[in-house]
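Let us practice reading a record.
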Amino acid sequence: MLTFRCMTYAKRAVWGIAAGVLVAAGAACSSLDAADGETASRGDDPDAVPGGGVGRQPSEDAPGAPTASGVVLVHSAAFPPFRVCFANHPDLRPLPDSKAMPEANVVGVEVGSLVRIDPVDDPGDVYVIRESSVRAAAGDPSGPSCGELLGTGGQALLSSDYHVAKLPEGLTKLGSTGVQALAITGCGSRPYLDFLNVDSASCGADWDDRAGNLVANVIDLTATGARADDSTIPVQLVHLAPLLETRLGTAKLEVTFGALASPGKLPTEVATDIALLESGAQVLLAVDQSDEASYGTHGFRIVAREDDGSAKFTFSESLAAVQSLSAPRDVPTTYYRAASNYALLLVGDPSVPATLDGGAPNADRRRVQLLAVPVLDPATADAGATATEDGG
């Protein structure tokens, strides 16, 4: 089977009208480039439910809730790995400009993954550029600026190398006054869809054969002041999966948590019937973090539930798998101990099978999956977290 390992490619494919990078089946890469070092221990959690039970998080307006800033750039589109430029910042290089995709030596945002970037004031339109057209090695400070790439000079890109994604009208600050997800959704043009084997009918009525219909969505990620401890992990689900939404039909989305060996609905409700691009209520997951086996035995079940109780489709994912997809250079025992609550980002396409013939996990990152990211960047949090080299 063909595999896609970000940039340690067996061959250096170039996306053109008839050829492309191998996105469809690949290793579990991610653009949350967490550092390899250990994270320091955290203090007691004043918001934890006594005895490690499950409960709702305090209000986002609760006294003492921390403030933070930054942008979590999320790839949830039918499009190859990308980097972005902002129309009003031609002097910047495409972002991310230094963080490599895991298991790779190039910079970018992998399909079904995320990466942190700095806040951007007055961003303007977002130019979503296929990574292979602006390939750069991690840590390489050279390379053309966005102005040069999107201009008319000798380094200018072809129009087929990028799509324009509109930000919400009137947005003047991105990630400056709080942590925000910048989720790229929608579909690329016909050549991209043909290679990815995506049916354009799932892209919506506004899809264009040449321009696609990528959208830059901005969702607030609230820092509540809660943090993980030995028995709990605070999470808030954010629905960023348009292709899943289009396939729900009359079914309702249901995300639960618990021991994965249990059949059917798991005991802890994470979110039910949540709308696309909306966030659910924050909950505390009961997890025995002193037992490493818990990360493999406990996890999430994502179900499209019909009114008669039957499941239209079902996907399960362990805490260990979520961590591996979100930050493969880390390990669950440190990753789920950040001095922060976690945003739990739902992405993917239910038409992509979760397993291959024979039952092995499907490494295609376009499948339905969850990504977990601490709302507070561990590299900058001052609530007991130890800074890592690049902050994820």
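A brief commentary: The CA atoms of residues 75 and 112 lie 5 Å apart.
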